[in-house]
Amino acid sequence: MSGPNPLVDDRDIAFLLHDVHRAEDLVAYPAFAHHDRETFDLYVDSVRRLAREALYPAYRTMDEHPPRLEPDGRVRAHAIMHELWPRMVELGLISATRPEAVGGMALPLLVSTAADVYSMAANLAAFGYVGLTRGAAHLIEAFGTDELRERFMTPMLEGRFTGTMALTEPHAGSSLGDLTTKAVPTEGGHYLIRGSKIFISAADHGITDNVVNLTLARIEGAPAGTAGISLFAVPQRRPGDGSGDDWVDNDVHVTGAIHKVGWRGLPSLALSFGERGDCHGWLVGPEHRGLACMFQMMNEARIMVGLNGVATASVAYHESLAYARERAQGRPLGDKDPTRPPVAIVEHADVRRMLLRQKAIVEGGLSLVMQTARWADDAAHGPPHARKRAAALLDFITPITKSFPAERGYLSNTLALQIHGGYGYSSEYLPEAWLRDQKLNSIHEGTTGIQALDLLGRKVLREGGRTLALLAEELHAAVAEAAQAGVDPRLGQALQGAMTTTAELVAHLGALAQANPTEALAHATDFLDLLSTVVVAWQWLRQATVATRCLEGLASGRGREGFLRAKLATAECFFDAELPRVAALAHRCRHDRSYVELDPRWL
Amino acid sequence: MKILVTVKRIPDPDESLKFAGNAIDTSSSKWVANAFDEYAVETALRMAEHIGNKDRLAEVIVCSVCPKDKRQHVTQFLAMGADRGVIVDADETAMDSQTVAKLVAEVFRREGCDLLVSGKLSQDSEGNEVAQRAAGLLDLPQASFAATLRWDRGANALTVGREVDDGVETKTIPLPAVVSVDLRIVLPHSVKNGATADDHKYSDGARLASLRGITMAKRKKVDVHTPAALGVTPSSHVAVAGVTAPEKRAAGQIVDSAQTLVNKLITEAKVL
Questions:
Q1: CATH code of residue A263
Q2: Which helix (H) or strand (E) holds A165?
Q3: Measuring CA to CA, which of A204, A510, A564, A592 is 20 to 30 A from A465?
Q4: Interface check A56 vs B, CB under 8 A
Q5: CATH 3.80.10.10 applies to domain B2-244
Q6: B-interface mutation test, from A10, A43, A53, most B Cβ less than 10 A away
Q7: Which of A216, A209, A182 lies closest to A297, judged by CA?
């Protein structure tokens, strides 16, 4: 029997964190000078243990018993959250990366990412409360007044309140410009909020005394569209009018609970603000600049969703790996002797194909998210001359980081289920639950379609490929380094080829955009898929380079040899199974007019 | 009150074993804290802390024999809440239990401690010797395999529930003393210090090091001694003759009736 599901491979975390993305280099930045490798390793270790010992054992029951809207109009999270929440808070999960000035520990996002992936793999829903609270607190830290910080941010960072992001309205899903929630200024300095929102995660749960909804609304008389949206802190309970610590009901009501297929431990709610005309909201940031402010939270949330995708694929991969090693069925091809005992299914090449494909997606995706986090650290705290470049790359890569793990992670999750055969298609086994969880990641925080338009429209075409050129420099450098390290030259050549294909396609789409912008964007999602594949291949080439160097001088059968050889095999798998799709996708972007010209009435 | 807790680093017991010739290959091992030492530190912290108050009833000192630059486990225990550390800078893998016990006893003496708390054994060698040997060297009363512990501060004594083969034996020992702890010492109601409410429910298990705790641990004092400075000459009366993997389990037998099974258990396995 193998042990319990490890959620994530510890060796891979050490390899990516230290050997590939070089976390220790970050302590040279003044913001991180008080840390060292030991702190990083101890923190990751604590979170990993909490994930394995407390969060993961609670996963199934939270999935099976989702919160409901109770007759008293309140929603209550699973009782086990009352035990998990203080433990997550105590370890420092909410405030880890925030500066010491606001009560955080100024941990690099790269290190926090290496820890978070365990919590997410263990229990996405439980971690969801942390992620949302983090983002909401950070918004007030960045744009709120000192008074708002004290009133709402500090309690959130201390785990006394939780936070949400309240954007979506029933009639306007991804189309934020159409939202109608209203804010009327008052003499008291606050606004009166009125309107309804939907799909608001964790807006009521009973774990903490209060929930702060970071809400987008339109100040009376504001311009139409996205230029008239402002950001407000709208708490479930607000400070009473008298002095002291009395907090009163703020006229925020739950009007429905969504019955979700996954993430079932985290309630998704419909909210109504101001039914009695007594819902107070406080402006965060300047008037009409709400969407720009909210993008800070959304960009962070998008990176987090990328990590959700990696984590959900990771836990399922490890489950299927253990199953494949234990489940005996069939005999090697050509062995017809029925008296011989059956072999573990991992002995069958097709099962190893499915395992390696998952590993390629999981570990390639994790490296992508860690690269993104590293750029976020560089952009915020790196040497001044490097910040601009890192910020540009971070902004550019975000739609890829958000969508690759969600889309390819879904494929990975189906393979984990497939390996379990008929049992995988039953709720007795967990792969089906992770498949359900994974699906949300291509939908929330901007669907894959939205990410695609962001990447191709805003980030590639509108800025004339400037940041894409910076990214290409990174890729060229990696190809040169791989050659120097003695990595199989086939990989470097394949990546070069894919880069040329991409550059030619971008030139073609750029020209097309001049004549017909709509048509140029029609294949945005295919382009996102293409560039994501190139970028993750780059991450695999980097991993192959580091693995090759680590293998030098290592005697056969010693130390990490097996792990490093598996890295090389997985890199090869990604280059052979995924990278060839680039040519087909480029062809599609140029020539496939089927849905561009299709009349919807014909369907 | 000063409590000394022994702590040790070991190769991660969850990793699969690798062999290099006649020895275990630890070249790529992750070194982690011995789990029973986590229980020991948790025990000491529960004794020292007065829940609901700021006062502390004892100073908790963690002591490890290890190379001074391989001290991550010590930092971890300081991050859990121990007050300070003592490292005896030596390669513990080349020492026998008697040498380690002598070093621990000497630190205990020099620090003027009142209580030594140890995990009942380390998960790598499973020796279960250091606490008992140290008690002998210090000529102190001892209670091993503690599953419950009550500190009677008025009487300056400990009442210890020991898990033994046929049940739980309760012993009262005067301080100073030596206690080794077993797994159940970290259950929610196992430790009572006479100050924290008796019905206080601790979290199950040893606490984890928080990020704040880890950062604060860096500022805590850690003294480093050499065995020579403690007047102990490392000796090894134990030599490793060789290390081999246990034999693989042979395939089981399928028998056709319960009667055959019983017969086989009597005649072949000889367990009935």
A1: 2.40.110.20
A2: strand A161-166
A3: A592
A4: no
A5: no
A6: A43
A7: A216
